[in-house]
Amino acid sequence: MSVNEQVLNYPIAGDAALDPPAEWAELRGRCPVAHVKLPSGDQATLLTRYEDVRKVLADPRFTRQLTAPDAARLSAEGGGVFSSEFAQIIPDGGEEHQHWRRLVGKWFTAKRMAALRPRMTRIAEDLIDDMVERGAPGDLKASLGFPLPVYVICDMLGVPAADRDRFSYWSDTLLNLTRYSQAEIEAAQGEFFTYMSDHLTAKRQQPGEDLLSELIAIGGPEDGGLSDIQILVTGMGLLVAGHETTANMIGKMVAMLLADRCRWESLLADPALIRTAVEETLRLDSNAGFGLPRYLREEIEVSGTVLPRGTTVVCSMAAANRDESAFDAAAEMDLRRSPNPHLAFGAGAHSCLGQALARTELQVVLEVLLRKLPSLELAVPVEELERVEGLAVGGLRTVPVRW
Questions:
Q1: What are phi and psi of 5, to 5 degrees?
Q2: For the whole model, what pTM was predicted?
């Protein structure tokens, strides 16, 4: 049966942790608007071509909110980062959404990131020193990939990094596809909500030099600021987004660059390639996770297929990033590729708010690793790397390295 006629289970599993599923190329070529079955059992429409994904992500008629009665549920348990009641609190479109982005986005400008860079570099150096002290082999994800973004986002939000294991668990439950039960998810979201509530109460009494203190200081909606519940959900959202995806990407980036030793050698010979190498690993990441779901409020045509109102569309940015019509030699890793208009951070009004932060963290990690551990290599064959399962974000369970 061809991909046109079958309903594929989604997410589509790849054979190896760093390789794309073979179905992506087939879907892009012959069935760019495909029917898929989600972990919940509900059906959705999957887009895999670059132009289609970019168009849908930038189109305001496709909404982020999956709480409509006829929207597909991603997981059987419902809830989660895309469809819980929390997801409805941040405005989804129009002037309100732009206003929210302007208030929060001030903390994620390239200028702010440049100012944060020396601190990020020191954190990365300390974490690598600790890993080296413990001796090889080490797990690069646990030693560096996970703690670095957590320290940075905790700093920006003024929350104690000592609570990072709890944040990690709460994040995982919000990103659940098949790993946690309904009871576990509800309990974790309740704990997370209470924690952030208490944190904001403390901030009101003792403000600091952080994003949440500044949002509180602006005042409520009548003063041009956000409501209390919006500030709370913004804090939760940034904590989840600010560490989970980047922690996973650090591990995947290093694994991709070490999978073929020539790539690592190229960077050692010319560290000026770090910036374009980071962009290329973001583009070639075949294990990016679920993609971005969108709900259609009115009928629309995509690649010659009419999608009725009420359709849930899943945009696979990872599949789109390997589209030969958008990138020359799309399956090849070219560390010098420029320009590189990949869709790893989405597109349009909802493109990732923290992309300057993620890029800076990835560049710093690579800079420091190349400088401090030039002999770094994977401690297991690439085929033995294992994917994170059951969550909406993709990652490697561990990244065993030696030096």
A1: -95, -25
A2: 0.93
